[in-house]
Amino acid sequence: MNPNPNAAVPLSAKDLNAQGGVYCPNPLAKMELWNTHPRVYLDVARAGAAKCPYCGTVYQLEPNWQKAARSRKNPA
């Protein structure tokens, strides 16, 4: 499980997949192999954050993630 369940896992635009989400368990949450659960998709881009229904880990987008995503798609 998440070693600090009260802390959110910060995400940037580069951490999201093409659909705007992440899977939990996720290496960014520093979960160990022995304490993982079935893989679940979390749509983080929709609300800016998502909580895993299995372990309670919260994945939170950084405030400027949309700007970073646009600059990644359209480099100057």
Q: How far is it from the N-terminal to the C-terminal residue, by CA?
A: 40 Å
Q: How much strand?
A: 15-25%
How is the quaternary structure best described? single chain
Order of helices and strands: EEEHEEH
Structural class: alpha+beta
Query: C-alpha Rg, in Å?
Result: 13 Å
Query: Count of helices?
Result: 2
Residue stretches low in confidence (pLDDT < 50, at least 5 long) are: none
Mean model confidence by pLDDT: 81
Largest sheet: 3 strands, mixed
Report the strand count: 5
What is the helical fraction, as a range of percent? 10-25%
Which overall shape is indicated by the principal axes computed on the Cα atoms?
A: globular
In what order do the strands lie side by side in the largest sheet? Answer: 1-5-4
